[in-house]
Amino acid sequence: MVKATVVGAGIAGLAVAVRLHRAGWAVQVLEQEAEVRTSGTAVVLHRATVRELRSLSLGPGIDALALPLTGLRLRTRTGLPLSPPSWPASGSVLIERADLIGLLRDSLPSTALVLGHPLAARDLSAACGEAAVVVGADGVHSALRQQLFGPAYRAASTGTTVWRGTAEVSTSGLTESWGRRRRFGISSRPGGGTNWYATATLPSAGLAPAPSDLEELRRLFGHWGGAVAATVARISEGSILRHEIHHLARRLPRYHQGNVALIGDAAHAMTPDLGRGANEAILDAMSLVQHLEAHDDVGSALAAYDRSRRRVTQRIASGSLAVHTLIHGSPPHRQDRRPRAMTWDDEKDPPVPTYLEGSSLKRVHEGRVGEEHDDDAGSPEVDGRTS
Question: Which residue stretches belong to region Disordered (predicted)?
Answer without folding.
Answer: 323-387
